[in-house]
Design a protein that fits this description.
Elements lengths: L1 H13 L20 E7 L9 E10 L5 E7 L6 E5 L4 E3 L8 E5 L2 E6 L6 E6 L8 E13 L4 E13 L7 H12 L3 E2 L4 E6 L2 E7 L10 E4 L12 E4 L3 E7 L8 E8 L2 E9 L7 E2 L9 H22 L6 H14 L3 H31 L13 H18 L19 H16 L7 H8 L4 H24 L1 H4 L8 H55 L5 H17 L20 E2 L2 H9 L4 E6 L4 H11 L2 H10 L2 E6 L5 H9 L7 E5 L6 E2 L6 H5 L4
Parallel strand pairs: 11-18, 12-18, 20-22, 21-22
Antiparallel strand pairs: 1-2, 2-8, 3-7, 4-9, 5-8, 6-7, 9-10, 12-13, 13-16, 14-17, 15-16, 15-19, 17-18, 21-23, 23-24
Helix pairs in contact: 3-8, 3-9, 4-7, 4-11, 5-7, 5-9, 6-11, 6-12, 8-9, 11-12
Protein name: Thiol:disulfide interchange protein
Pfam families: DsbD_N, Thioredoxin_7
Keywords: Membrane, Signal, Transmembrane, Transmembrane helix
Length: 691
Amino acid sequence: MRLLKAVLAVMLTLLPLAASTQLVAQPLQRGPNNIAASLVAESPAPAPGSTVDLAFAMTPKSGWHGYWLNPGDAGLGMTLTWNLPRGVSAGELRYPVPETLIIAGLMNHVFEGAYAPLVALTIDPSLAPGARLPISVKADWLACTDEICVPESATLSTSLIVGDGATSKDTRARFDGWRQRLPAPLGSKATYQLDGKILRIAVPYPAAGDIEAPYFFASTERAVRYSAPQAFFRDGDRLIIETEASGALAGPLAGVLRIGEHLGLELVADKGAVAPGGTRIDAAAADEPEGGMLALLAAALGGALLGGLLLNIMPCVFPILSLKAISLAKAGGDERGARRDALAYTAGIVLVCVALGGLLLILRAGGEQIGWAFQLQDPRIILGLLLLVTTISFNLAGLFEFGSISAGSSLIGRGGAAGSFWTGALAAFVATPCTGPFMAAAMGSALVLPVPAALLVFAGLGLGLALPFLAIGFIPALRHRLPRPGAWMGTFRSIMAVPMFLTGLALVWLLGQQTGNTGVLFGLAAAMLLALLLWWLGARQKAGRSGWLPLAPALASAVAAVLLLPTGGSAASPGTSAGATLPAQPFSEAKLAQLRAAGTPVFAYFTADWCITCKANEAAAIQREATAAAFSKAGVVVLEGDWTRRDAAISRYLEAQGRSGVPLYVWYKPGSDPVILPQVLTVETLTELVG
């Protein structure tokens, strides 16, 4: 059937050219291909028992296009003939989300720019390291313009060597960019109904989810009339597609739903009842696209404000809030000073939140698969925070004073607006990785909003975090409830050094999770050297001498430690250890799909060593005897996604669930849609899933 379509396409394009004297000038069969193709491997050294992606990097000349799996009314997708060594097998070709192109009334599903279908190669576990794997494939495709079509082919080859699966950072980023254009699995079943010639498809889709230029590409051949118009309706948490069927459908209907530029969802619809209704959102409603976007922005902004406000009671924020508690107590009855400090504190928080959000958007636009709290996935940032917390801890403990060090080196310890600003900046930098209630959905929505609206959401998060101190600064009745300044403040300051030291210990542990024992020893040595220099600084201050002399080597040692930190150590392996109360397997989408296909109940949770909310939930609800017993009795398989260090696969999964950070808990019950659980768990919440 596809070959017949290709022949038809060539004949249709030749008819208007037959009368043209320019026909002989067209390069139909000679010369280089009009769509250049190359075969690229993500890793030149795949490990035994692993899979490695191969990309067919296709680059059409200007004005030319290639075709999707189901080309539509005319055209031909790519066909492959493999020549593989023993122990290597190739999976199915995975296409990016295509585009629509209408020529002479025929609907074509095409790629008009550079595109890259992917194939997964499976390497047999029995292959020995060092074995050479010559890969060869003959690829055939159709290249077309609006006027002519040319069948093209190429024999592409590459050579792999069985190794450790290593790949370069640039190659990984390139493949992540290609994978970003693949349709994401819908994760739940759609339903379709035939009503005469009208085909109606109901797709589960969140009411607040963004969608732009929707279109349904049917991969099931001869299921729809490709050139027929498509209408889209929003009806609560489902999207209704109406179009014209091509013939009688009996089995499942598969296809890809485009939800934005290069974004799509891969779905399978079973036959069932689909009632018409909802609000039309396609061309008929194109005159008012701002309404849905404004509603999404309002929901995201409200969630960010509430999420930021709740961050003030999260455990990860308390050590930083202790600094501000001392500052507010010192403000006493100075109303003007309290307002100034509150505004400065707010400015520090909001600017850091916007800066982190802006950097996140820039990196994602460049192809990086990262999410909110990405700064704590770099061990050098962790070491920098460790040294900063060490400095603050010893200052609170009375080892030295910020006050006698001149401007520029006493950002957090300075009084007045400057000190409040930098305290707020530090609070935002450390506190934002804690994803609390309301915040996860807001941060996920920010990633699909236009850049100005997304930055407004990030600013809303900072404003929510600063709201309690704004209230204290501007409401005298609240401020008067603070204790009066006095001798107690010295004792309080020393007590507040304790949570800061505990934060330092947590950062040392996190550094070990990311870099192994080598990184821990390096971090402890750097912290001890810094503490020694701070002790020298305190001794000079007590003797009435300048603090500049020890300050220079202290700053130099901190900067050198961050730059020289060895990041290639043997970090802790992801996944819960076998001796845990509730053992877990490392998360992968392939493993999840395998378990769901077998009808196995799955509890998937996504965590990070720097996420205190995650660790609190694990201690209070997940790693409990009652939970383990209930899950074992029901045959539940637990999958753990460790996001401590950057993991593009987990980032993609989080984004598909409308999240940009952890924690995330998803329950997969056989035969039912996935359920996203609350971000604060109890044993009862989990045991009731299998009750």
